[in-house]
Amino acid sequence: MQSVNFLELVGRGKVPVVLVGTWLVMALLLAFGYVARRSLAMASDPTVPDEGITLRSFAEAIVEWLDGFVHDVLEAHDTRSYVPFFGSLFLFILTANLLGLIPGLEPPTGDSDLTFALGITCFVYYLYQGMRAQGAARYLKSFLGPVLFLAPLMLPIEIADNLFRPFSLGVRLAANMFADHTLLGIFTGLTRLVFPVAFYALGMIVCTVQALVFLILALSYVRMAQSGGH
User: Fold this and answer.
1) Which end is more exposed in the chain, N or C (fewer Cβ atoms within 10 Å of the end residue's Cβ)?
2) pLDDT confidence of 45, banded at 50, 70, 90?
3) Phi-psi region of 48 (alpha: psi -120 to 50; beta: other; left: phi over 0)
């Protein structure tokens, strides 16, 4: 029996750079989560915050900010149940974006394969949340429009609008991160000392803003799906 080389199924025998970058980001986040959780478990009183800046206090600040941010955008009562998904999404995108600031590395989010996968994940998630909030029949019926005679017109529009969302999420993130990484490489290669610091600072801002934009849009889609506005 002939054996199967699984590497031949991925990248023609070579592991794609975006896949390596994705694994690296996942490893960093898993290590950060494990260490933060361990420091919380080893605390004599978990309800008392650490003094000064520690890994535990940093992790708690991130979780608290994400909890408030998700609540402010969704404006629902059970928003805390959404924090694990959207928190993981935001931290993954932010870490992947910042990875491109390290010399010699490329941001995995500069590859459309990864960003489209993230967009499709959000697409499936907000469809599920819409059906969960309204019921599958009522949610799908809302695609037909407010009155039945408009269904032939509204149905194609609603389907196209929903299918375009993961595509726009993926294109926007990939294009911006590819452009940011390319410009950063060009300008830091032409300058020395002071100017590269300014470009790296600008790059950090762009990385953070793009992660926030992706998060806000994904949250908005869930909110519209739950309210019947798609």
Assistant:
1) N
2) confident
3) beta
